Amino acid sequence: MLIVVAGASGFLGTALTAELTAQGHLVVALRRSLHPVKPEEWDPSRGLVDHDLIARSDVVINLSGSPISAWPRTAKRKHAILRSRVECTATLADAIAAAANPPVFLSASGMSWYGTDRGSDVLRESSTAGQGFLAGVAHAWEAAAQEAIDAGARVVFLRTSLVLNRAGGALKIMKVPFSFGLGGRLGSGRQYFSHISLRDWVGAAVHLINSDVHGGVNMANPNPVTNREFTRALGRALKRPAFIPVPAWALRFVLGSIADDLLGSLRLEPQALVESGFKFHDATIEATLQNALND
Q1: How far apart (Å, rounded) are the C-alpha atoms in residues 204 and 39?
Q2: Which uninterrupted H or E stretch holds 251?
Q3: Which of 3, 54, 154, 289 could form a disulfide with 237 if both were Cys (CB 3.0 to 4.6 A apart)?
Q4: Residue 181 zone, left/alpha/beta (φ > 0; ψ -120 to 50; rest)
Q5: Cβ–Cβ under 8 Å, residues 203 and 283
Q6: Domain 2-169+194-222+268-281 superfamily per CATH
Q7: Cα-based angle 60, 170, 83 (whole degrees, multiple of 5)
Q8: What is the pLDDT of residues 74-83, one digit of tens each?
């Protein structure tokens, strides 16, 4: 297949494009340009992308967006986080809608669609939407693809949880305090920590390309753990102590509103993946960490 990928150079995009290429697909990575002249160049800030390239493609994958982990999360940063996601998605959706035979559209989203803290509630794709800044971003992000949906394209929203791999993402940062013997739970440690291995995330994305699934999809391990359970498992995997807790007040003092993202509880269930026949390689936190740390 001809597969167009936006955000191909990022943590997830690099791994996914490598797998798609290995499977024999032709992958075209979009790259930003202020003056797009080549088919692979685009400028989402002005809604510019090569419509002929999109029309010829079988699948379009959107993984673009300004990093949400940047600190401090100022008003300017919040605007960039929202604008970058909406512009990229809307630009691609517009081109997909203009195609005579609209390609499949896999568009990134986040588990924050469900909010920041839903306690121990099990969150399936049919669960209600959440509230808060990141939830609002995810809602606008998905809504920006509506034009492609209206044109009859099969659109899948990848509501991604924390993707664990030593090459990047959250785990690369989480390992640091453990290296100095300072690992420990965050706050009470009772908050649920939805996650997925990079290997399973890539496998799930490929599975969704070849399935008939549409709408929101929880990209998460079927066995979420609490922060306390994750901390203990990571300590065992790294052979480091994990008994120094980080109080909630300290996180809020240092990180401000970003601390709520770490202290909140989201217990995702990947119902759409499971029911469509996807098989996880790393279905436990122990398997996930073993793969993440040794891959």
Answers
A1: 28
A2: helix 248-255
A3: 289
A4: left
A5: no
A6: NAD(P)-binding Rossmann-like Domain (3.40.50.720)
A7: 50
A8: 899 999 999 9
- Asked whether 103 and 193 are in contact (CB, 8 A), the reply is no
Domain definitions of the chain by residue range: 2-169+194-222+268-281
- Ranges of H-type helices in 63-168: 75-98, 133-143, 146-150
Question: Which among 57, 58, 66 has a CA at the least distance from the CA of 7?
Answer: 66
The string of DSSP codes covering 31-65 is EE-SS--STTEEBGGGTB--HHHHHH-SEEEE---
C-alpha separations of 35 from 5, 29, 87 in Å: 19, 17, 17
pLDDT digits (tens, 9 = 90+) for 6-56: 999 999 999 999 999 999 999 999 999 999 999 999 999 999 999 999 999
